[in-house]
Structures are given as C-alpha cells and as structure tokens.
Sequence to fold (280 residues):
Amino acid sequence: MMKGFRQKVYFLYRRSVFKLVQLQLVLIKYLPRGRFILTDIGEKILGEKTSVTCGSDDLEFNTPNWLTHRRAVNLLSDEPSTISWIDKFPENAIFWDIGANIGSYSIYAAVKKNCTVVAFEPSFLNLMVLQKNIELNGVMDKVTICPVGLSDSIGIKTLYFSKENFRFGGAHNSLGEPRDQYGNPMSKTYKTLLPAETMDSFIFRYEGLYPDYIKIDVDGLELEILHGARKVLALVKEVSIEILGQDQFNESIDEVLVQAGLSRVTDNRLDARNVIYRRS
Fold:
C-alpha cells in the first residue's frame, strides 16, 4: 500500500516538473534567437558525461539520459562475472562484443587490456552514444563499430524496438520477428530495416579481425546468431553468452557450442545471466 502511494506521489511530482520545464522551453522558443538557445540546451543534455573509476583508469561515458547513466555507474557491479572474464584476457586480444549497446564492455576491454574490439550494435540510438564513448576514451584506433544485425543468414531484415525501451541505452530489441528475450510476442514496437550479416560472412570480409573472445548478449537471438557462426566458433578461444528463456532453448545453445569444441566452464545456475565456454 505504501509503495503504491509513493508511486502516485512520484507520478504527480514528475508530471508537475515536466509541465513546468515544458512551459519554460516553449517560452524560450519565442525569445530572440530562442531556437538557437534550445538547440544549445539540447546539445548540452546530449553531451552529459559520467566518469567511472576502474582501478588505475578513469573511464568516461556519454550519459544523455538516466539509463545510460545507470549503465555507466553500474559497469563494475551489473555483471561482475563479465568484468572478471575480461580481466583475464591477455593483452592485445581480439574481442567481439555482440550486442554492444553503448559500449561499456568494449571500452573496458580496449582501455584495460588493450584489446582490438569489434562492437556489433544495430540500434541507431545506441550507435551515437557508442561513438561518443569511443572518442571520450581515446580508443578510436582500437574499437571498430559494426552497425549491422547479426543473424543466421545474410539479407535485409527488420529490427524491432520495444516502445518501452526506445531510448538511448535501450535494449530488448529483436531482429527478424517482434519477440522478446523469452520468445513472447512484442505488443508495441517501432521498426526499421537494416542489413544483417552472419559471423561467418563478416569474417570472410575482414579476415584480420578473427576473434579470440566473443561476448553475446542479444536478448533471445543468441541461438540464431550461433547458427551463422560455424567457422568462427571452430577457432574462437572463449565465448561468454547470456542464457535466458526456456531450458530447451538453452540446451540448444549448449549443443551448438559443445559441437564446436567448447566446454562450459561456468554454471548459469550460479550466474543467472552469463555462461562462459572455453576451448579445451
């Protein structure tokens, strides 16, 4: 009961502040050169930065909204197993970050381990923030952005955005079909067309970027992507993959990776999100 009351109070507070700020912005628009001032305000907000201390390094992240700020400040605590995994990389390894979002782990690997990183991220909202994060941390020569969707086949496919996550730093998008990470239909979506590649087709074009380590966090599309990665999986050293959804789906992921010569080294019953596979 108390929680519901607090939510109502917050809703009224939020709506009141929003209306006040909205009125101020409308009034500014009618001032001399008001639209230029509004542009400056917008660019100031979009340029907000957050610094995160990681050992001896301070990483900088572009944080234009609450979600990107949360991703930045929780870098070390949100998925500690992923940070620990990256910390064990040898220097100068090649790391593929599939589902890079705003590039938190791409930046961490490039700065802390001097990795060459390929950041796969199809969301145009996240790409802007990802590029800024690369520049802020001076790793333009270490991180390559690949703004395509990965799948089990090459072609033009539809990327669906869930409306509740349609913002900078948003996730839970789906390529090909409007379904969430548990396989359920998305009820409200935005969508756009974009090119899709397979891991194998990408490496055919860019042989010098063969990965040593791969992180896959794509909200339910993991199995589909693995089906397009036979050649890559045959040589990769380790894969960290998010495991969600039904047991049958997880068993299929496990089967594909084991057939590629990789062995499970973590138990997702202990880490509910990520499982690491290593070449024996």
Notes: The radius of gyration is 21 Å. Residues 2-29 form the longest helix (28 residues).
